[in-house]
Each structure stands twice: as structure tokens, then as C-alpha cells.
Design goal:
The structure holds two protein chains of two kinds.
Chain A: H1 5-12, H2 17-38, E1 41-45, E2 51-55, H3 57-81, H4 92-119, H5 124-149, H6 158-175, H7 179-198, H8 206-226, H9 228-231, E3 237-238, E4 244-245, E5 248-249, H10 257-261, H11 268-294, H12 296-306, H13 308-313, H14 318-344, E6 346-347, H15 354-366, H16 372-388, H17 393-410
Antiparallel strand pairs in A: 1-2, 3-6, 4-5
Chain B: H1 2-32, H2 39-59, H3 65-92, H4 102-122, E1 127-128, E2 136-141, E3 147-151, H5 152-174, H6 176-186, H7 188-193, H8 198-224, E4 226-227, H9 231-246, H10 251-271, H11 277-291
Antiparallel strand pairs in B: 1-4, 2-3
Helix pairs in contact in B: 1-5, 1-8, 1-9, 1-10, 2-3, 2-4, 2-8, 2-9, 3-8, 5-6, 5-8, 6-8, 9-10, 9-11, 10-11
The chains are: A mainly alpha, B mainly alpha.
């Protein structure tokens, strides 16, 4: 008799109201101790410089109640849903439907994105949000090369974003170079920094790599803050020139695009232009990534992700493979950074904190690490979710952190946890990523 | 020379604090093989709990400083340890057999949760406390009028660190729990076959690590006289650097690494520039990992297919 792992572990878990109640009670007691001082007592610096405190037992009781109720709900859901971590094989029909949807969803999404400025021409807010989402889509696709394809965990991706942004900002303000000259330069500079980071970390793997890239990102940020003569320090760089349509400015002057076309000027023109610019840049990222995946280097990245030792045994040069992954990812980050600088007109080190890196990484992971469509959807969900919490600014990162923990427990492979092999024998076969073992990249 | 001696003292005190945090990283890495990214924030929570307990005790009318300090120490250790236990239970245990990056990402999420939890619950402003332990000794008065000071708080920090380290070494090398921990570090499956409760041992590792971080948080509060919600991030990375520098998985290494990082940071601020002291600490992390990936006291690991 064959017993599936799911059945055994499910049977070994006791159920029943008494059990759930007991568990919830324990959670509530733990929560009471945890929150007793942190929520029950509020401290603040008083007027005379000393500290004052007051108690908030109502909030404390409410939080403990929430934990009690929440753990009952979680326990009920868990019994209904079954234990976490069991292997689920997706039925073929569902797979077929998903594949069909996947094929058409991407096209539909692309067409819709192209039409967004037409449909929402009057709604500046939606256009701005669209530009923001597309920026993160591009960043996600760029990081996807490093994390999703090559399997190198990079926690300092924002460093390249910063390098790109500052490259454009400084080149444009000091040397008066135009956006279209600076854009490739920003990409090249960021790629250079990617190689610079890549060299020392070639021998590192996994967690060590993550920490070193994190340290690298922090170093870049700290240097930007402290090198005040060049970067303006914490005050940032302002007055960054707006982009032009190959030399034609998008403003209200006589040389402006509106005047040349003989139409009435509107500030929305620039927003629409920025929208299509970032869309083109993001699509370029996507196109390059898709093409690279079919080249030997892309295959080598994916092989590296699966198993580095086997990679080396097969004669793949892991040094160049890793360096190209870092450089390619960094270049896209740099391009996105240059766009960010020209769109904002002002940049400061505050835009390039570790939280940004974590957000982009979360987008890639949520998107299923390697799935281009998944990353785009994840960026939409993440940035859209952030917008929903705009009113509760201080709770935003709290919810983001909880979501990250929850996602890792619930779907560690991301929403679209589907890793199709790029090379296959005879016929294409969908492999659920749950079945693919991860090597030590 | 006097200036150097003063910086040496300051560096050793700072290093003791880093060392206490680094032990938590190194223990968890040794047993579970993951970087507990939220550990720096546990240190921050420990500082906050010490601060709040201290405030309550003072407002209750307690005046005996040693009694206050002892109660603050015990309360912050106990509650912070419970934080460590809860975090392991919620965010790490379900992921123990998940894919490689999952615990790391979950830990990053947990770090955000803790940072923003304390920001929301206690406010974003820096919380200052008046000096609790005052006084000190002048060790040497130079001709130029520069005196080498050794304050009482510095003595307290160093003595507490040494006592805790001795206690902790005793736990790991002499007790049943320590034996279980070492067994789990070598081979979890084998340990569980031989009757070691692996789940419980891992939980206890997190509890002990969090308790030590709480002590570090309290020492930080006493030494610098302030806590804020963001102090865990940088302190956490530096302590991790210390753990790597000493050789991750090695307890004396963590302490040695902590002292080295404390000294380097202090000396760098004293002789080069204060602004770039964090850059110096992070650069050391990168340099160590390039040239000495096993650290000062670590064992080299061989990767097998």
C-alpha cells in the first residue's frame, strides 16, 4: 500500500476544536508577552530631553485578540488546505489551461500596456503609476538575469540603479550631455561596476554572495552620501535635464515638439513620452534576455543555476558566465537608473536604500525566478499593493515584510512557479518547478 | 600613544558588543546553515525592551542601580529570547527543507517586520536615556594634558561580555543541550536518529542567540545612551562581518571577529575619517571573503557533489 507523504503527515496532525483552541491560546499568551512592553508601553522623548512614557493597554488587548483570532483562522485554513510543503503535481488540464492563458496573457497585457496612455490620457495619476510599474518591471527583468537565470542572489542591485542614475545626473549637469548620449554611458558604467563587484565574489556562493552584494550596495550608498563635492551628499542632485525626443525638447518653447507639430502644448505629452520610453526600455530588456537565453551564454547561466559543480565538469567557464550575468543585470539596472533620474529631475541617496533592493528581489522571487511574465505581473501586484497602502505609509513596509515571509512559506517558488527548460529532447514538456531540484549556485 | 590607548579601550568595548551579536549569527549559521538576517533587529528589540523596563522601574521608585540593572538584564533577555523563538517558529521552521534562498528571503522579510514594528509601536524618533552608570578612572595622564579614561560603563560592558561568554562556552561544551547542538551541527538526520530533538535544539539555539543579542542591546543602550528603530540593520551587518571574519560557525572566532571589527572601526574613525567608518567595515567583509573565506578560526569546507 502506498501512502503519500501528504496523507501521513495530515493524519499525524491532531485536529478538533479543543486542539485549535489550545493552540490559539498559546499564541495569544506568547503575543501578550511579546507585545507587553513594545505595544503596551509607548516611550517618547519629553520636552526636557528626558524620556516619558504612557501605557496603551487597550491596543495591547486588541493585538492579543487579533493574534488569538488570527491563529484560529490560520489553523482552520491549514486543516482545510492541508499541510504546507507537500509536493503537488499540477493536473494536465490545469497545466494546459495555464499554458494557454500564459501564451495569450502576455500578448494581451502588452497590447493593453501600449494602449494605457490612449485610454487614460486625462488621468495623470494612472500614467505616473504606469511609469513606476514599468520601471520596476524593467528592474525586475534586469535582476532576473542575475537571480532568476544565473541563480546568483544579489541583495545590492540598487547599487547599479544608483550608479546609472548618478551617471546620468552628473554627466548631464556637469558636461551638458543629452539623455541619449548618457543612457548608453550609464549602462556601460553600471555594467563596469557589475564586473567590479563580480570579480571578488566569484568564489562565493549562496548566502555569502548575498551578504557581500548587500555590503557592496551599502558601500555605494555611503560613498554617495559622503562624497559631497561630487554628488551633493544627502541633498542629492537637482535640476537634472528632462529627456528630449532626439534633440527636440518636450516643452512649451518655440523649438518644442508641440510647436513643431503645430498642436497645442500640454504637460501630458512629456508623461506619455516617458511612458513609451520606459516601455521601450523594458521591452528591450525582455527581448535581450529572451535572446540571450537561447545563446550558449544563456544556457550556461541556467546550467550554473542548477549545478555549479556539474557546470565546471562540463567545461563551462564559470568565471565569464558569472561576470556576464552580473554585467548584463547591472547594465539594465543602470539604464533604469538613468531613466529614473531623468523622470524625477532630482535624485538623492534616499532613493537607493536596501529596501529598494529587497523590493526588486521580492518582485523577482514572487514572479517565479526566471519567468519573464511572472516578474511583470509581480511588479504590477507589488507596486499596485504599495499604492493601496499609500494612506498608511508607516505600515507599508511592515505589511511588505509580512507578505514576504508569508509568500516564502506559502509559495517559495513564486506565483508562477514554473520553470520551463529552454532545451528539450524531441518535444516540449512542462516541468513543475517543485520537481526541479536546486543546485548550490 | 595615550590617544591610541584610549582608542584601544573604546574599540574593545565596541567590539564586545559586536561579538555578543556575532555569536547569534555564528550559532545559527553553524546549526541551520542560514544567515539569520533578522538578528540585527533582535538586537534592536533587546535595546528597546531594556529601555522600557528601565523607565518603568525608575518610575516605580527603585533607586538601587545594581538591582535595576539586574532586573532590566533578565527581563530584556527573557522577552527578546521569546522573540527569537517566535521568529524561528513562524518564519524559519516551515522553510527548513525548502529551496535554498527561501529562508534567507523570509529572514529579510522578518527583518523588515521587526524594524517597522518598532517604528510603528515606539515611534521613529531617537530615544535618549540619561547616563545610568557614571564615573570612571583616569588611567594615565599624559604631558599634553590628554588623559586615558576608563569609565565604569566600559568596565561593566567588558565584564558582562566575559561572564556571558564563559557561561555560554560552558553550556556548549559541558551540558546536554550543548552536546545536542554540536550533534545537530554535524548531522541533523543522524542526531535525530540518536534521539536528539532537532526542532527543540534549533529553537534553543535561536533563544540563546536572541538572549545574547538582548544583552548586547542593553549594553549599547547603557554605553551610547540611545536606541532607535533603525540601529539593528548596520549593527547586524557589522556583527555578521565579525562572524565571517572570525570564521563562521566558530564561537571564539565570533568574539575575536567582533573585537577586531570594533577595533578597526574605532581606529579608522580616530585616524582616518568618521564618515567612512561603515564603508571600512563593509570593505573588510568583502576583503575577508575574497582572501580568507573560512575566516580566522573557521574550518575549510569541501563541497561534494
Amino acid at each position: 500500500m502506498s501512502v503519500t507523504p501528504a496523507a501521513t503527515s495530515h493524519a499525524s496532525q491532531p485536529s478538533g476544536a479543543a486542539f485549535i483552541f489550545k493552540k490559539a491560546l498559546i499564541s495569544a499568551v506568547v503575543a501578550l508577552v511579546l507585545f507587553s512592553l513594545m505595544i503596551g508601553v509607548r516611550t517618547e522623548a519629553g520636552n526636557q530631553g528626558g524620556l516619558i512614557y504612557w501605557t496603551r493597554f487597550g491596543d495591547l488587548a486588541a493585538m492579543v485578540g487579533v493574534v488569538f483570532g488570527g491563529s484560529i483562522i490560520v489553523e482552520l485554513l491549514r486543516q482545510w488546505w492541508g499541510p504546507v510543503g507537500t509536493i503537488r503535481v499540477v493536473p494536465p488540464q490545469v497545466q494546459a489551461t495555464m499554458a494557454f492563458a500564459g501564451r495569450w496573457l502576455a500578448t494581451a497585457l502588452l497590447v493593453f500596456t501600449f494602449l494605457v496612455p490612449v485610454i487614460f490620457y486625462d488621468q495623470r495619476y494612472i500614467l505616473d503609476l504606469g511609469i513606476l510599474v514599468l520601471t520596476y518591471v524593467m528592474l525586475g527583468w534586469g535582476l532576473n538575469v542575475v537571480v532568476g537565470l544565473a541563480g546568483l542572489l544579489d541583495l545590492g542591485y540598487v547599487a547599479f540603479y544608483a550608479v546609472g542614475a548618478y551617471s546620468y545626473a552628473l554627466l548631464a549637469t556637469y558636461f551638458d550631455l543629452s539623455f541619449w548620449v548618457c543612457l548608453p554611458l550609464a549602462g556601460i558604467l553600471a555594467a563596469f561596476w557589475g564586473v567590479l563587484l563580480g570579480f571578488p565574489v566569484l568564489r562565493l556562493r549562496g548566502d555569502y554572495l548575498a551578504i557581500v552584494t548587500l555590503a557592496f550596495g551599502e558601500i555605494i550608498r555611503l560613498v554617495i552620501i559622503n562624497w559631497q563635492s561630487l554628488t551633493g551628499g544627502p541633498n542629492g542632485v537637482s535640476g537634472i535635464p528632462r529627456p528630449t525626443l532626439f534633440g527636440i525638447p518636450l516643452d512649451n518653447s518655440d523649438n518644442g515638439l508641440a510647436a513643431k507639430l503645430g498642436i497645442e502644448f500640454s504637460p501630458t505629452h512629456r508623461i506619455v513620452f516617458l511612458f513609451y520610453l520606459i516601455l521601450a526600455m523594458a521591452l528591450l530588456t525582455n527581448w535581450v534576455t529572451i535572446r540571450l537565453r537561447r545563446l550558449p551564454i544563456g544556457r550556461a547561466w541556467e546550467a550554473l543555476r542548477e549545478d555549479e559543480v556539474a557546470c565546471r565538469a562540463l567545461g563551462i567557464n564559470t568565471t565569464t558566465t558569472k561576470l556576464t550575468a552580473f554585467a548584463t543585470g547591472a547594465m539594465f539596472g543602470g539604464l533604469a537608473g538613468a531613466f529614473f533620474a531623468t523622470r524625477q529631475g532630482f535624485i538623492s541617496p534616499e532613493s537607493f536604500t536596501f529596501q529598494e533592493s529587497a523590493l526588486v528581489l521580492a518582485i523577482v522571487v514572487l514572479g517565479g525566478m526566471g519567468s519573464q511574465l511572472g516578474v511583470a505581473l509581480a511588479a504590477l501586484a507589488m507596486i499596485g499593493g504599495f499604492e493601496l497602502f499609500r494612506g498608511f505609509d508607516q505600515y507599508r513596509m511592515l505589511v511588505f515584510g509580512m507578505a514576504m515571509v508569508f509568500l516564502m512559506i506559502w509559495r517559495p517558488r513564486g506565483l508562477i512557479g514554473h520553470r520551463a527548460p529552454t532545451v528539450f529532447l524531441e518535444r516540449s514538456q512542462a516541468i513543475s518547478s517543485d520537481l526541479v531540484k536546486e543546485g548550490h549556485g | 600613544m595615550d590617544y591610541f590607548a584610549q582608542q584601544l579601550i573604546n574599540g574593545l568595548v565596541l567590539g564586545s558588543i559586536y561579538g555578543l551579536i556575532a555569536i547569534g549569527y555564528t550559532m545559527v549559521y553553524g546549526i541551520v546553515g542560514m544567515i539569520n538576517f533578522a538578528h540585527g533587529d533582535i538586537f534592536m528589540i533587546g535595546g528597546f525592551i531594556a529601555l522600557i523596563t528601565f523607565l518603568i522601574l525608575v518610575s516605580l521608585g527603585l533607586t538601587a542601580i545594581p538591582v535595576i540593572l539586574l532586573i532590566v538584564l533578565l527581563v530584556s533577555m527573557a522577552i527578546t529570547a521569546l522573540y527569537g523563538w517566535t521568529i524561528e517558529r513562524i518564519a524559519y521552521r516551515p522553510l527548513r527543507h525548502s529551496f535554498r534562498l527561501a529562508p534567507m528571503l523570509s529572514a529579510i522579510g522578518m527583518s523588515f517586520v521587526l524594524t517597522n514594528f518598532s517604528q510603528v509601536s515606539q515611534g521613529a524618533r531617537v530615544k535618549p536615556v540619561p547616563p545610568i552608570i557614571t564615573g570612571g578612572y583616569t588611567l594615565h595622564e599624559g604631558a599634553s594634558g590628554f588623559a586615558v579614561q576608563l569609565s565604569n560603563i566600559q568596565i561593566v560592558v567588558v565584564i558582562t561580555t566575559v561572564v556571558l561568554l564563559a557561561m555560554f562556552t560552558w553550556i556548549v561544551s559541558r551540558t546536554r543541550l550543548g552536546r545536542d547542538m554540536r550533534a545537530c551541527e554535524q548531522d541533523q538526520t543522524m542526531a535525530s536518529l540518536l534521539g536528539v530533538d532537532v526542532d527543540r535544539t534549533i529553537s534553543m539555539t535561536f533563544v540563546i542567540g536572541a538572549a545574547l543579542a538582548a544583552v548586547a542591546g542593553m549594553m549599547y543602550l547603557l554605553y551610547y545612551g540611545l536606541v532607535d528603530f533603525f540601529m539593528g540593520f548596520v549593527a547586524g551587518i557589522k556583527a555578521f562581518t565579525a562572524a565571517v571574519l572570525g570564521g563562521i560557525g566558530s564561537l571564539p572566532g565570533a568574539m575575536l571577529g567582533g573585537l577586531s571589527i570594533g577595533l578597526i572601526e574605532t581606529m579608522w574613525s580616530a585616524y582616518f575619517s568618521v564618515e567612512y567608518k561603515d564603508v571600512a567595515a563593509f570593505s573588510i567583509l568583502i576583503v575577508v571573503l575574497i582572501f580568507m573565506p573560512t575566516g580566522l578560526l573557521g574550518r575549510p569546507t569541501v563541497e561534494k557533489v
